Structure formats: structure tokens, C-alpha cells
């Protein structure tokens, strides 16, 4: 009997130790992943993924997955086969979302067309080729209010041009003249600008490239988005 009880005790202890390995807490996984990735990558959070045994690892605003032992880092998308829903894509969209009210219109170049009922925020660098392409497309929109936030991130010349545009007597005209017509802004750009505030906002919300668009529901569209996709998004907000 004593031998039997000893065997049961040993088996129970073994099972408990094994179980504790699989129940490794998120904080321990985060610490282990951070150690392996090094200081150049900031692990923001670790949380259970929708697939048993996997954990979501948020590095900056990028989503990865790992196992309970933090041995593997998996890059890819989780798709629910029954519905076809891209769970990773939806999660990324939610992470990239902002509060529209966090935007300060006073820091933007405002342009109202038609009744101005539809609203759009654009973060732009005056030396960004894709921003120029987007701006040409945006000319097709009507009944819209566009807030353009200048974030000079490409070069010192971007800073100078942004200052010249903002400090001109008509910032929107100066912006369009440069972005569409190739007429360089003039003047010394010596006035108080919101550029530092815009750059701080961009850093806080992970806006690392231009153009980046935001809609009133907080959703983010990076890059030179097609006008058809912009109209489709506007229609979904009605």
C-alpha cells in the first residue's frame, strides 16, 4: 500500500510540473521573447491567441505569435476556415484605430468642398511622392472636409517646405501648388507651426510612413489609397 501511495504521489507531482510548463504566464513569455529579440524590438504585450496553445505577441504595432515556451516566433495570419474571417487582419485594424477626437483640427490645413459632410484626415510629407499621387486622387472627392497634417519625416528639406507652406498667406493653395503643380513654396517659413505637435502625435500613434489616412471611425488606411476604396469607406460610415 505504501509503495502504491508513493507511486501515486510521484505521478501527481510529475503531472503538476508538466502542467505548470504549459500554463506559463503571459508576463514570463513576454520577458523571454524580449530577451531573445533584444533591445531593438519593443514587445508591447503578450496575450492568448484565438488558437489554443498560441499567444499573440505585439511588437510595436506588428502582430506575431509564439508558443507557451516562447521557443518560436510565428509570422503570419490566422484565418478562421468556417467563416473565412482573417482574425489577424481584423486585430491589426483594431490596433491601428485611433479616436477621431484625439486629432486637433487646429494643427491641420483644412479644405472644405461642397457641404463638407464627409471628413478625412491625411498625414503627409511635402516631399513624399505617394502623397503627391494621393493628393491628385483626392481632388475627385466632393462634399468632404480634408484635414492635412504635415509631418516632415523624409528630410531637412521636408521641414523647410512644411514651414513655408504653413506660414504662407494661403496654406492650402501653397500645399496644392507644390503637391500637384510643382510650384515650390516661397518665403522663409518663420512663424509658429504645429509641426512638432504633429510629429509627436505621429510617434504616439505609430504613424511611420506617409501618406496615412484616418476616417471618423478611427480606422487607418496607409499609403496612396485608391479613390474607389476611399469612397467605399465613406459609404460604409453612413
Question: Topology, please?
Answer:
Elements: H1 2-22, H2 26-37, E1 43-48, E2 54-59, E3 62-67, E4 73-74, E5 79-80, E6 85-86, H3 87-96, E7 109-113, E8 118-124, H4 129-138, E9 144-150, H5 156-167, H6 171-179, H7 195-204, E10 212-215, E11 220-222, H8 227-236
Parallel strand pairs: 8-9
Antiparallel strand pairs: 1-2, 2-3, 3-4, 5-6, 7-9, 8-10, 10-11
Describe, in plain words, how this protein is organized in 3D.
This protein has 2 domains: 2-96, Roll (Nuclear Transport Factor 2, Chain: A); 100-236, Glutaredoxin (3-Layer(aba) Sandwich). The termini are far apart. Strand 10 and strand 11 (220-222) form a beta hairpin. The chain has helices at residues 2-22, 26-37, 87-96, 129-138, 156-167, 171-179, 195-204, 227-236; strands at 43-48, 54-59, 62-67, 73-74, 79-80, 85-86, 109-113, 118-124, 144-150, 212-215, 220-222. Helix 5 (156-167) crosses helix 6. It is globular, with a radius of gyration of 25 Å. It has a 5-stranded mixed beta sheet with strand order 7-9-8-10-11, with helices on one face. The chain is α+β, with helices and mostly antiparallel strands and 238 residues long. The chain has 8 helices and 11 strands.
Features:
238 residues, alpha+beta, Nuclear Transport Factor 2, Chain: A, Glutaredoxin, 2 domains, five-stranded mixed sheet, four-stranded antiparallel sheet, 11 strands, 39% helix, 21% strand, globular
Amino acid at each position: 500500500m505504501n509503495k502504491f501511495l508513493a507511486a501515486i504521489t510521484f505521478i501527481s507531482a510529475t503531472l503538476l510540473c508538466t502542467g505548470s510548463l504549459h500554463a506559463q504566464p503571459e508576463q514570463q513569455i513576454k520577458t523571454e521573447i524580449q530577451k531573445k529579440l533584444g533591445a531593438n524590438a519593443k514587445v508591447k504585450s503578450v496575450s492568448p491567441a484565438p488558437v489554443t496553445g498560441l499567444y499573440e505577441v505585439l511588437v510595436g504595432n506588428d502582430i506575431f505569435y509564439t508558443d507557451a515556451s516562447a521557443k518560436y516566433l510565428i509570422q503570419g495570419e490566422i484565418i478562421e476556415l468556417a467563416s473565412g474571417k482573417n482574425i489577424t487582419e481584423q486585430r491589426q485594424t483594431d490596433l491601428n484605430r485611433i479616436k477621431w477626437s484625439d486629432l486637433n483640427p487646429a494643427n491641420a490645413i483644412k479644405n472644405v468642398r461642397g457641404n463638407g459632410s464627409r471628413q478625412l484626415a491625411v498625414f503627409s510629407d511635402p516631399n513624399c511622392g505617394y502623397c503627391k499621387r494621393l493628393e491628385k486622387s483626392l481632388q475627385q472627392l466632393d462634399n468632404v472636409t480634408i484635414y492635412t497634417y504635415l509631418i516632415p519625416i523624409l528630410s531637412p528639406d521636408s521641414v523647410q517646405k512644411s514651414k513655408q507652406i504653413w506660414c504662407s498667406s494661403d496654406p492650402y493653395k501653397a500645399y496644392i501648388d507644390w503637391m500637384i503643380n510643382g510650384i515650390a513654396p516661397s518665403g522663409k517659413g518663420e512663424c509658429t507651426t504645429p509641426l512638432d505637435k504633429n510629429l509627436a502625435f505621429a510617434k504616439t500613434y505609430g504613424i511611420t510612413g506617409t501618406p496615412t489616412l484616418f476616417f471618423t471611425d478611427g480606422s487607418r488606411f496607409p499609403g496612396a489609397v485608391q479613390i474607389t476604396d476611399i469612397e467605399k469607406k465613406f459609404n460604409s460610415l453612413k
